[in-house]
Amino acid sequence: MPYMSPLHGEVISDKGILGPSYLSRARRETVNFQAALVAGRDAGTVKDESIWVEIGAHPICSKMIKAALGSHIHALPSLRRNEDAWKVLAKSLSSLYLAGLDIQWKEYHRDFKHALRYSNDFCLTKGDEKSAAISAALVSANSMLSTSSVQRVLEQQLGDEKSTLVIESNLHHPSLSGVIQGHKVNGASLCPSSLYADIALTVADYLLQAAKTDTKGIGMDVSDMTVNKPLIATGNGPQLVRASASADWNARRVLIDFYSVTGDGNKTANHANCTVDFENTDGWLKEWRRNAYLIRSRIDSLEQGVEQGQVKRGLAYKLFGALVDYGQCYQGMQEVTLDSAQLDALCKYQNLLASGRNCFSPVAFWKIHVTRRRSSFT
């Protein structure tokens, strides 16, 4: 294993250098911490996505690492002064776990088997009075990528021409279960296509940012969404779903597959797939400007001339209730105006989801114009 030597300011990989003489010199001579870090970076021993774990009573070297290699570096403490040791350790371990490392949780809990309890999350926590705080730390710990819909990264390979990413989420996680429970078809909690789209956008954006390219003027278009088998939430324990993404930077496209797995990672069902294309937003705006006056005039006409076709929120969702039972935070339609003769409809929609760790980014207010030919948002 290569060793970044603060004594020599270089990476040591040859045998026989580290020994009593080296340790004696290291205690007496000048330490060049920055040179060792830079040498490790230049040699490829450490990379921007590397995660550092500082072993000690309080994080001191972590600040020096970030100062030398950049503030984006992930550095985790093992202990922290004046903080509960279990809480600090659990948070760091959960960050490593969410980053895709295989943590041997059985070893971590080996001396506390009598106090284990299941906390409806990926990990087990110690069943004492501080378990709730530790569980919260496990849920909210930062990682390379962690949102309500994309909870942890399992694998990633970043390249100049191709990049791949595999993520995993638990449908029964508190931050995600509400999305599933808020969309019921015939009493079954069904994963909506909008959740697939949100995962796709989150994953594609992560890969785009990791590619370290200029993202100005780049928009993401989710298309070719195909749902082969419905994803239905069952039981109360962990129900794991994964998304596998493959980015082709020459084609400016990401292909994404969604599938269920067992706790051991064995695939049980393919559910859906879609494509995310990276496109120039200027082109979108030009297309919108060409058609905006037609759409806006039709919206005005619908609002002024079809009074009898107006359906308020309560009745609209009562009609929907024959097919789909939407949760309160997904009942965003405020009013629907129908023109049956022209097969046109206008919907005033307000996003009711609060900001924070929800799956969807909040949008203030939309008017949606639907015809037999197109849908438009203003």
TrEMBL record:
Keywords: Phosphopantetheine, Phosphoprotein. Residues 307-378 are annotated as: C-terminal hotdog fold. Residues 151-378 form the PKS/mFAS DH domain. Residues 151-283 are annotated as: N-terminal hotdog fold. GO terms for molecular function: fatty acid synthase activity. GO terms for biological process: fatty acid biosynthetic process; secondary metabolite biosynthetic process. The keyword tRNA-binding does not apply. It holds the Pfam family PKS_DH_N. The keyword Transferase does not apply. Transmembrane segments: none annotated. PANTHER family: CONIDIAL PIGMENT POLYKETIDE SYNTHASE ALB1 (PTHR43775:SF45), FATTY ACID SYNTHASE (PTHR43775). NCBIfam families: PT_fungal_PKS. This is PKS/mFAS DH domain-containing protein.
